[in-house]
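Subgroup meeting minutes
Present: P.N., E.W., G.H.
Scribe: E.W.

1. P.N. recapped why we're keeping a running log of single-chain structure predictions: easier to compare across weeks, and new members can see raw inputs and outputs side by side.
2. G.H. added today's entry (457 aa).
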Amino acid sequence: MTDHPRNPRLLSLDTLEQLIVSGDVDTVVVAFTDMQGRLQGKRLHAPFFLSEALEHGTEGCNYLLSVDADMNTVSGYAMSSWEKGYGDMIFALDLDTIRLLPHLPGSVMIQTDLTWLDGELVKESPRSILKAQQARAAAAGFTAFAGTELEFILFNDTYEEAWDALYRNLTPANQYNVDYSILGTTRVEPLLRDIRNTMYAAGLTVESAKGECNLGQHEIAFRFEEVLATADNHTVYKNTAKEIAEQHGRSLTFMAKFNEREGNSCHIHLSLRGTDGSLVFWDPSSNQRTLLYDHFIAGILATMREFTLLYAPNINSYKRFAAGSFAPTTVAWGLDNRTCSIRLVGTGNSARLENRLPGGDVNPYMAIAAMMAGGLYGVENELPLEDALVGNAYTSGKPTVPTNLRAARDLFAGSSIARAAFGDDVVDHYVHAADTELAAFESAITDWELRRGFERF
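Output recorded in log:
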């Protein structure tokens, strides 16, 4: 076991039952994370949850893992189609994830796995994909920990006003760069404080809030956990932050690149321990990295181009990759070097790597699973680690990650490493998701085309 037990602010089933019987909880939100990283599910009336759903479960249509961002049914998926009748999946309750939602009166949330009616996990579910890599690490004697640093841009417009304005000419919550500015965060502290305190009550360990570079851009950081808990927390936080922004009459976005200024990043910190809690990334006797750590880093670098689809899953993700933007473009690692895609920080107990490639739109289960699969590939094959990059990675001439979704899709589809790590079913499912987005984008008429072509062509 590790020395990081389950967060004590998460509720036990006994406590939940007491809260329901007393009338303090009347709603149980049952939710899973879909391909796009969104929470989907149902609100159950709490007495019904106790009398029926707790024992017998609840179901949802299997099209929920076969739709696009607009929830349109999409043909071509092996697991779900009109021909197969769009049957049910079981929302399998994970009773280790019961959490209060204090911003929603009388409500708790329980996150779920997805299973077929025979109890078999749905392999294509993001949570199943991460759990498979977690099991692979455990079989090798490791426990993985991760922390995500997620940025958002906050606007003074409501979501409805933003929709009606076609997301143009919105008013950012700050009018200038407030990176690390105390004054700048004070401007929106009532909302930031509400998010922090709500997430603390919901079982996350809050570290800090700080301003960022884009207008109205902020980051709230949380303490690392075992990888599955981190991904669970990440999705709850994204959903809750949007709900709280709405309650404040504002809106926020985690999209990777909202405008031509700085994008929203999601830096992911990752480390391994032995399943007994021992250090495996650091040798205390020599006070330096272990060979296993080097192999792990080498594996992430070796698979980074082929796995970019899991780090940058959307058309917009690739707009963030720009030289000199603090969004990395090169396949390189460095010691505390923010121009590299992999940045090493910490020593001893805190030794960890930071993947700076993902944006705020990333699905955390998929990105962490990709890091683990790549790192374990490096360990299993004892890949040597190249020398650390010193200086500016943007001008180093090192290989770069794919610059658009189609290139990333092709690399992932043709990756034998991805197919060995995740299985053909999973690879083909997410390749088809990329194909769906590409087809939708390539048939859309953009405002850029209208401005350039309406009168002048």
